[in-house]
User: What shape does this take?
Amino acid sequence: MCTEVLPVSAKPAATPFSATMGGSQGGSDYYDMYLAVISSYNQALMNQSTTRNFCIIAHIDHGKSTLADRMLELTGTVQKRDMQAQLLDSMDLEREKGITIKLQPVKMKWNDYTLNLIDTPGHVDFSYEVSRSLAACEGAVLVVDCSQGIQAQTLANVYLAIEAGLEIIPVLNKIDLPAADPERVAGEVASLLGCKPETILRVSGKTGAGVPEVLDAIVEQVPPPKGEPEAPLRALIFDSIYDIHRGVILFIRVVDGVIKRHDELTLMATRAEGLAVEVGTFAPKQTATPEILTGQIGYVVTNLKSISEARVGDTVTLESALAKGQQLEALAGYRQVKPFVFAGFFPTSNEQYPALKDALEKLKLNDAALVYEPESSQVLGFGYRVGFLGLLHLEIIKERLEREYGLDMVVTSPSTDYIVRNTAGEETTIRSAADLPDPSNIQEVREPWIKGEVVVPGDYIGGVIKLINQIRGIQTNLSYVDEKLALVAFDAPLANVLTDFYDSLKSITSGYGSFNYELSDYRTEQLVRLDILVAGDTVDALSLIAHKDEAPRIGKQIVEKLKTLIPRQNFEVSLQAAIGGKIIAREDVKAVRKDVIAKLYGGDVTRKNKLLDKQKKGKKRMKRVGKVDIPAEAFMVLVSKDN
Ligand code: GDP
Ligand code: MG
Assistant: This one.
């Protein structure tokens, strides 16, 4: 569209700068101003023609962050001696887990071009962030580990990229590995994208081989950003963070117009208003600039109070643009992300309750998807029911609360939400089995279902379909990426993919199967409340909602697992699973006379004290139900792996 540079004699369609130049300008002054406008207009266009915005997409662990590291080095954005592995993964947790949670944009120079790279999180919990970063780019480098081949999130990301109209540059990574099979994987990728296998670039993020060619391909193949420099500002928020010193910072892609320091902004979806306190680019640290031009990627420090006002996907414009009554259409695709996995978080001691509240408030500042509400349990006391985008999100928040805020908590098994319609026809959403009304008051209960996709070599299809049936899933389609690689599409209840579906898939497919899903709808099912009784007492925090046909198996599994988790007491403890008062499974923890100190023959005081200390610590993490002490892990019984 607007990629041509205008000659000085041509008059641009509009002169939005006139507002900032003041009213009546006469004669040659006006001409100078006019020239200035033209030249800044041309500059903006030049700027667009030498800019490439791209992201890197891949299945998790295929090497996005490592490839980005090599690009940073090659372009001299980061000196080799300052290089740490996966530089763009800035959180400690990310480095430790080797995953990308928060995306981190960066600006690089390659020959005469400006390349803006957005690294994306590969995990399904954060797929909304992936889709927003795609919307901020014109191209995507598709990384496929050629010792693995195409996997479920490779496909999911490719579909997203195609939908967003991006130029896709496929790259086979890890060619240095002995297990690499670039020929086979090139075939897979070629049949997926409809390109020639020999044109696909081969690289190693580890050694750096082939990476300059990738940068060249980005310059040649990714189109420059479109957009009208002289139109009213429209910028897409593809991420927002809360910085304790600077407040809410927006990561934006300017689509039309220009954003300058001190601009008064309006966010079109939330209608929040704020000031651009500072604007700048990622080079790779945030570096202030006077403005961010059309087509560029940058950040805006605002005076907004919280990131709930500055949601990912929203459109930033100028207050003045809206005030003029101009018809301005928000950029497409905004949607509010909703958590759908819930777990109870209870501090082990009541004194920590205010600290937990405070910590959740702080984390929420930086995580608009996090929601929480107070919850109380007879057994666990006061805590919060916290909502997440998936299990990884849950695990990250739990770990951050423990590490960064020093909290000691009992976390309950995650559950989904359910829609309950009572006999009077009223519908409520519940997030905990404890909130399920008496069965006599229930007309129906609906549970969330997902649309899932498993990508697997053809030999394993039988096993995968069996597994899908086991989780009450329904296979909806079977297709092939190429002659060997199959794609099994299915619908299934979300609750059943949250627990051990992924592990089972990995084990029945010798590690080759991969899985991706998205939420679809709520379906009416025969759902019941399953209670767990310890020594005859119902433990509310262990109750869950399960399908009528699955409840007996789940009940049995839980009591068996609890038996291994609950230490022996000096009396026998019964563990029972019950549906509506009817016992469906039972195990017993045998009694033991446990006198640990008697075991110590000598009179070694330090050892004795150490042992008592250890017992005390263990006790603190125990929750007492009647006369029985239950360890914290037992409340996560559904997902805890160590038996
Ligand atoms: P991401 O999840 O896609 O960001 O993947 P990472 O960049 O974190 O890489 C995942 C793992 O693969 C890390 O252990 C990397 O060191 C390793 N890796 C990445 N690229 C290469 C490569 O080209 N060769 C080899 N041998 N290992 C690589
Ligand atoms: Mg990464």
